[in-house]
Write a structure and sequence with these properties.
It is a single chain. The two termini are about 35 Å apart. This protein has two domains: about 230 residues, Thymidylate Synthase, Chain A (2-Layer Sandwich), CATH 3.30.572.10; about 70 residues, no CATH class. The strands form three sheets. It has a six-stranded mixed sheet. With about 325 residues, the chain is α+β, with helices and mostly antiparallel strands. About 35% of the residues are buried.
Length: about 325
């Protein structure tokens, strides 16, 4: 049985049994624990959960969006990726330019008010259509601020200019693999106020040993049911891509969490997931004709033998 999936399922159990109840920014309420670590041996298979379907195309398109340094949801929507919509939509409905129905607390209200939920979906669909059709509107309201892609690829320097952290760390892995400074950080205190969502996965570090590349992520805040499965798969994919460019095998992905929490409206979903038996992990397939991380597109990435249990839907806390 995969130790990778068991590590995640044990996190669910530990927080359910030992977590503390806490209020949160979204008003939903959580059960939370502070300080938790999981290890995923990437040689076992690609760590995409099998106890529920996790959409690999959404994981991959978001990661490629980060890698390209993009911070606008338009590119994601062009790939039918909707995972950042709510944060851009929130900026739109709170702006002076918005004149539609009141969307205050749309995340919570849409869960309990059927009439409002219909109204919310109508406004969200109009918003998405306008982002795709109107480049000026997309530039103004599809933009999320200086989130991950900006920090990874274009970290601004106090004296002017910028640092391409991702490009630099790949160069260091190739030329100085024993360095203890193989780090990329997304947490930029100066830019946090301008971000639609401050980075949850804040810093990652690479480690080369015996011809294999490992990665450790520090994540300050993690939605265990919805977010963390994406984060595990995303950083596993990033490790595979960088290992490929650097001519290395893959080692472990180590996931270190700060505030790891289960939202109070995800309890029934987690009970369903924990009742299921894990299946074999899939295998990641890369187009080996592509050498650089920065050249990969969606058609260059695929999975083999992914046969998960069905999707379990749950609301996103915004």
């Amino acid at each position: 049985m995969s130790t990778s999936e068991q590590a995640y399922l044990q996190l669910l159990r530990d927080v359910l049994q030992n977590g503390v109840r806490k209020d949160d920014r979204t008003g939903t309420g959580t059960i939370s624990t502070f300080g938790y670590q999981m290890r995923f041996p990437l040689s076992e298979g690609f760590p995409l959960l099998t106890t529920k379907r996790v959409p690999f195309k959404l994981v991959a398109s978001e990661l490629l969006w980060f890698i390209k340094g993009d911070t606008n949801i338009r590119n994601l929507l062009q790939h039918n990726n909707n995972i950042w919509n709510e944060w851009a939509f929130k900026r739109w409905v709170e702006s002076e330019d918005y004149s539609g129905p009141d969307m205050t607390n749309f995340g919570l209200r849409s869960q309990t008010d059927t009439a409002f939920a219909k109204q919310y979906m109508e406004q969200m669909n109009l918003f998405k259509e306008r982002i795709l059709a109107d480049s000026d509107f997309a530039a103004a309201y599809g933009e999320l601020g200086d989130v991950y892609g900006k920090q990874w690829r274009d970290w601004k320097k106090a004296q002017g200019g910028s640092i391409d952290q991702l490009k630099d760390v790949i160069s260091s892995i190739k030329n100085n693999p024993d360095s203890r400074r193989l780090i990329v950080t997304a947490w930029n205190p100066e830019d946090v106020p301008s971000m639609a969502l401050p980075p949850c996965h804040t810093m990652f570090q690479f480690y080369v040993s015996e011809g294999k590349l490992s990665c450790q992520l520090y994540q300050r805040s993690g939605d265990i049911f919805l977010g963390i499965p994406f984060n595990i798969a995303s950083y596993a994919l990033l490790t595979h891509l960088i290992a490929h460019e650097c001519g290395l095998g893959v080692g472990d992905f180590v996931h270190t969490l700060g505030d790891a929490h289960i939202y109070s409206n995800h309890m029934e979903q987690i009970e369903i997931q924990l009742s299921r038996d894990p299946k074999p992990l899939p295998k990641l397939l890369l187009n080996t004709d592509k050498q650089s991380v920065f050249d990969f597109e969606m058609e260059d990435l695929s999975l083999e033998a992914y046969d998960p249990h069905p999707t379990i839907k749950a609301p996103v806390a915004v």
